[in-house]
Amino acid sequence: MEDPRVFFAAERTLLAWQRTGMMLMAFGFVVERAGLLLKVLGQSDPVHEFTLFWLGVLFMLLGVLTVAIAVFQFSQLLPSFSALERPAGYRVGISLGLNLLVALAGLMMLSVLIFLRF
Prior knowledge:
Blueprint: H1 4-41, H2 46-77, H3 92-117
Helix pairs in contact: 1-2, 1-3, 2-3
């Protein structure tokens, strides 16, 4: 096939996985902060705080892994596209780089939360 729409469909899939990963990271952050909110309201015990913290960390880690795996899969797919399937002058590295930055930002957020906890 020499149709650039196939390449753009693959890139849209990469971006869809990026959105999914970002949503998982955001959800994990909200879950983790819910434990803090319950503590401030005085309606929490150590078991709930512990559970919500690690559940939030798990969701955030899952989001980071989702973005990282999407980058890996897309980079593995790139060599299969011919020069005719890629638009001339189109920079593929930008989308891969931005996705890696999103994964790195998620890891940084995760490490800060863990550092502040302990």
